[in-house]
Amino acid sequence: MIDFHGVKIPAIGMGTWHMGSDPGLYDQQKATLQYGLHHGATVIDTAEQYGSGDSEKIVGDAMKGFPRQKIFLISKFLPYHATKHAMADALDRSLERLGTDYLDLYLYHWPGGTPLAEVVNNMEAMKKSGKIRHWGVSNFDLSDMKELLSVPGGHDVMANEDLYNIGSRGLDYEVLPWQRKHGIPLIAYAPVDQADTRGNGIIKNTTLEKVASEHHANAFQIMLAWVVRDDHTLAIPQTDSQKHMQENIDAAKIKLTDDDLKALDKAFPKPTHKQLLDII
Question: What is the pTM of this model?
Answer without folding.
Answer: 0.96
